Amino acid sequence: MKRILAANNCDVLAQFAWAQALIAFDFDGTLAPIVEDRDRAFMRPRTRMLLERVVDLYPTAIISGRSCADVVARLDGVPVKHIVGNHGLEPAGSMDAFEREVSAMVPVLHALLDHEQGVDIENKRYSLAIHYRRARRKKDVRAVIFAAIAQLQTPPRVTLGKLVINVIPANAPHKGDALVRLRDQERADVALYVGDDVTDEDVFELDQPGRLLCIRVGNSRKSAAPWYLRDQQEMDLLLEKLVELRARGRTA
């Protein structure tokens, strides 16, 4: 992986900033810092201000594991054009079927996991997130969660996050599907995507050289993303650079 904000990589960003580009972000760990209490996750004031400038210059999307309504509530009025929730499946076709599938999972998982201290099942209507950040024996609890998921009648798609296990209907579209759909919808030549977690690998693993620039928050040899930011605080620098390059391209 290479650091996208290194001085000698400015031309890489410029090629995308000056093109007909869609800009897309994850929310938690990307636009907003990771926090202990997920209900307290919000953008820093400067990040919000810079994002507002970005959405004025580019068609912009947020593709999050949160529900669409939850994301909108955290944007503090920033008019992001596209909001995609539940790891890429909201909004999508077959929403009623996804909701029925998740509804059938809920009582089974509660019956098997409610006695586990530090485990919290978040029902996002079209997917579930099983949080274990507050569990003391995290490795043991994670094994218990996987065993519970194995009891479900309809096997779901399971993805790991940062101290969370996401349970998603098996046939649901993922973040990569959502990004390609939005890029086509916008008739954009290229897309830039920034994310920090395992579910973002569905975007990073798309093999589309020249049409997709993937940036991971945090360097990781396990990631398919070719570019990285050192940490979440560098998001502000990236947003600044996107604004600066777009403005420069318009006046060139």
Outline of the structure:
The chain is α/β, with parallel strands linked by helices and 252 residues long. 36% of the residues lie in helices and 18% in strands.
Show unreliable segments: none
Query: Which class of the largest domain in CATH terms?
Result: Alpha Beta
Question: Outline, from the CA principal axes?
Answer: globular
How many structural domains are formed by the residues?
2
Key descriptive features of the protein:
252 residues; alpha/beta; Rossmann fold; Alpha-Beta Plaits; 2 domains
Task: Lay out the secondary structure.
Elements (H helix, E strand, L loop, with lengths): L1 E2 L6 H8 L3 E5 L19 H13 L2 E4 L4 H6 L8 E3 L10 H19 L6 E4 L4 E4 L6 H12 L7 E4 L3 E5 L6 H11 L4 E6 L5 H4 L7 E6 L9 E3 L5 H17 L1
Parallel strand pairs: 1-11, 2-3, 2-9, 3-4, 9-10, 10-11
Antiparallel strand pairs: 5-6, 6-8, 7-8
Describe this structure in words.
The protein is α/β, with parallel strands linked by helices and 252 residues long. It has two domains: 2-91 and 173-251, HAD superfamily/HAD-like (Rossmann fold, 3-Layer(aba) Sandwich); 95-168, Alpha-Beta Plaits (2-Layer Sandwich). It is 36% helix and 18% strand. It is built from eight helices and eleven strands. It has helices at 10-17, 45-57, 68-73, 95-113, 138-149, 175-185, 201-204, 235-251, and strands at 2-3, 21-25, 60-63, 82-84, 120-123, 128-131, 157-160, 164-168, 190-195, 212-217, 227-229. The strands form two sheets. A seven-stranded parallel sheet has the order 1-11-10-9-2-3-4. Strands 5-6-8-7 form a four-stranded antiparallel sheet, with helices on one face. Helix 2 (45-57) links the parallel strand 2 (21-25) and strand 3. The protein is globular and about 60 Å long.
